[in-house]
């Protein structure tokens, strides 16, 4: 039997949900590794809805679980029903939804609150010594919950290629060890069984982002 891996989504769309290319890459690479993805999302309202054409918030209201179901082709469960006992690993793709719907990182940075459901799930996998894969902005969840852990969000010096590098500095302020890695590389925190990669934190070609996510998935499945 292939490994059963929980994939937690945060909506649908980079600016207010899960990054669609990252989420798809996770599912494709899990399939390639012979693993079975089980997709979950919290049944809560989004912080807000962004018009992705204009890049501006709208007056709409949308639900994180309903929107995430678009990516999962309807095959998704409420995060409240996740049972760590039947699962081998956890992966959370990036996208601003992680910082808006799974936590308050977008508005509060290092002083953010991680939603209780998400925190409980991360702590349950960690306590069970089951691997956790995080890409793009989602490593901030681990930075907040597991002090002293080792992570990467790419590079810690801001430039055109690394426009979000200040995130690494904030993670260091939380007491984490940030490890600089190229977009096609991953960092493995052996002690905490955390596998991280930068994905769209890097201004890189989409195939390189997919390659990095593929390495993250391979490591997560190997550790499971």
From TrEMBL:
<dbReference type="InterPro" id="IPR026041">
    <property type="entry name" value="ElbB"/>
</dbReference>
<dbReference type="InterPro" id="IPR029062">
    <property type="entry name" value="Class_I_gatase-like"/>
</dbReference>
<protein>
    <submittedName>
        <fullName>GAL3A protein</fullName>
    </submittedName>
</protein>
């Amino acid at each position: 039997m292939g490994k059963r891996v929980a994939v937690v989504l945060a909506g649908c769309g980079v600016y207010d949900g899960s990054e669609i290319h990252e989420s798809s890459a996770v599912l494709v690479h899990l399939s390639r590794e012979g693993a079975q993805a089980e997709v979950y999302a919290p049944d809560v309202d989004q912080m807000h809805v962004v018009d992705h054409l204009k890049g501006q918030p709208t007056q709409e209201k949308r639900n994180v679980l309903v929107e995430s179901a678009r990516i999962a082709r309807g095959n998704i469960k409420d995060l409240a029903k996740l049972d760590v006992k039947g699962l081998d690993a956890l992966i959370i793709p990036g996208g601003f939804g992680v910082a808006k719907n799974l936590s308050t990182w977008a508005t509060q940075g290092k002083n953010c609150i991680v939603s209780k459901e998400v925190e409980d799930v991360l702590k349950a996998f960690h306590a069970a010594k089951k691997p956790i894969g995080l890409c793009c902005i989602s490593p901030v969840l681990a930075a907040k919950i597991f002090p002293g852990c080792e992570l990467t969000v790419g590079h810690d010096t801001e430039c055109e290629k690394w426009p979000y590098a200040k995130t690494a500095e904030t993670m260091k302020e939380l007491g984490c060890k940030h490890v600089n890695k190229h977009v096609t590389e991953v960092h493995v925190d052996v002690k905490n069984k955390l596998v991280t990669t930068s994905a769209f934190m890097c201004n890189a070609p989409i195939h390189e982002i997919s390659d990095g996510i593929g390495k993250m998935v391979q490591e997560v499945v190997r550790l499971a």
